[in-house]
Every structure is written in structure tokens, then in C-alpha cells.
Write a structure and sequence with these properties.
The chain has 2 domains: about 5-50, no CATH class; about 55-170, no CATH class. Helices cover about 85% and strands about 0% of the residues. The termini are far apart. The protein contains 6 helices and no strands. It is mostly helical. Zinc ion (ZN) binds near residues 7 and 31.
Length: about 170
Amino acid sequence: MDHQHFEEYLLNDTPIPREEQSAFDAHLKVCSSCAALAEVNRSLKHVVMAAPAAGFATRFQVRLAAQRKVQKRRHLFGLLILLLSGIAVGGWYALPFIPTIFLSPADLLTAWAQTLSATILLIETLLNAANVIGRVAVGFISPQFFALALGTLSLFIFGWMISLQKASLPQTI
Ligand SMILES: [Zn+2]
């Protein structure tokens, strides 16, 4: 058997006929070119075997769908939190008016104006305080101390807001 004959088998990746197998094996030992071709064919078969297992695309699609579901749920959760905090803030502002719903419109307007002016005053004070603190602090106070001061200030303001609301309730009743 000659080289050309086996090379054709190898190039077409044709299975070697059983009666030529021993002659083929013997030829591979003496012909580096055919041995290399045989090696390439073997490697290519391994690559095919290493291809994704059956059902890979399906599993990938299922996982992708699950991930999208989680993402959607997360978006919904965020939206819910936003809505709840919106309701909470709205409720905080509406609370002083709840007892006044049964009062005359004039009283309602007065109560509303009181809360509005108190809120504006609060914001003004906050801005002034932040301005002063900013001007004083930026120069020499460390960021840690600044954060601590800001936390204390916000706690103080929170307490003030609660006392302000408590004070505004008896006025409207
Ligand atoms: Zn050969």
C-alpha cells in the first residue's frame, strides 16, 4: 500500500477498511506526514466530543428566563418601596389634616398654611445650618467628624419634626 492511498483516507477522514488496518498502522510508523494527519483527525474528533452536551441551549434559556424573572421581581420590589415611601411622606404631611377633614375649609386652609410655613422655615433653617457647617467644617474638620456631626444634626432635626407635628395636632383639633 502506498502513501497516496492512505493520505486520501486520512484527508477525507474515511474509516480505514479492516483488511488495510495493519498496513495502515505500519505506514503511520514510517510516514510522519500521515501520522500527523491521523493525529489531526483524532484531535478534531475530540473537539466534537467536547462540544456542549445535549440540552445546553435549553438549560441556558431556562437560566436566562429565571434571571430575568428575578430582575423583574427586584424592579417591582424597588417600585413598591418607592411607592410606600411616597405614601409615608404623603401621610406624614397629610396627618395634621386628618382631624381637620370634618372642620370648615377656612380652618383646613389655616392648618395647611401653618404646616407649609413650618416646613419652609425648617428647610430654610436646614439650608442655613448646612451652609454654616459647610463653611466652617470644610477647612479643618476630618470627614469622620463631619459625618458624625451630620448624623447628630439629622437626628436632632428628626426629633424636631416629630415635636413640630405633635405641636400642630392640638391646634387643629
Ligand atoms: Zn504516508
